[in-house]
């Protein structure tokens, strides 16, 4: 059996319904005992007053433990507001038990925040963390919007080395 300890499973989250679906899918289908579940979020604007924030603009935030990213006061300094449902999904995943309920199912849940273009920053995250695999939602933008903006999931699938699973918003 493959040793799962130390796998780093990334899920791109923007707190939309689609990203919550991707997060749930990753927890139900990918995450195993001993894995690190890393929620990757990309904020568009950075409003920094502190010097350390300038550093983070290029490398992203430190890995933020679940206990910290669940606190609004902590997240305020990153200018990111995770919604209650995403936090609930993450907290439930961290408490998940193994199938036989006798052995604790241990996964570490952390968040990493980047600032900038989601297409570029998610690709950077895959390389720098580095991730074993990535799960990303597909919002299903309309044709014109996709043509102008480009699909984030499409860009990521074509530009990263690790396996990527795209979870569709609608079946």
TrEMBL record:
UspA domain location: 7-168
Top-rank taxon: Eukaryota
InterPro entries on file: Rossmann-like_a/b/a_fold, Universal_stress_UspA, UspA
One Pfam family named in its UniProt record: Usp
Descriptive protein name: UspA domain-containing protein
């Amino acid at each position: 059996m493959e040793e799962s300890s130390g796998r780093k499973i990334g899920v791109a989250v923007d707190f939309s319904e689609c990203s919550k679906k991707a997060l749930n899918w990753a927890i139900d289908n990918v995450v195993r005992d001993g894995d690190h579940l890393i929620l990757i979020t990309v904020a568009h604007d950075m409003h920094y007053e502190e010097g350390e924030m300038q550093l983070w603009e290029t490398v992203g935030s430190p890995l933020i433990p679940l206990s910290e990213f669940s606190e609004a006061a902590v997240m305020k300094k990153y200018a990111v507001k995770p919604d209650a449902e995403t936090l609930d999904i993450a907290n439930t995943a961290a408490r998940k038990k193994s199938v036989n309920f006798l052995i604790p199912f241990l996964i570490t849940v952390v968040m990493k925040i980047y600032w900038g273009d989601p297409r570029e920053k998610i690709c950077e995250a895959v390389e720098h963390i580095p991730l074993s695999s990535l799960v990303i939602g597909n919002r299903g933008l309309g044709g014109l919007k996709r043509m102008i903006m480009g699909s984030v999931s499409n860009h990521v699938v074509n530009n990263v080395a690790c396996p990527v699973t795209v979870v569709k918003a609608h079946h």
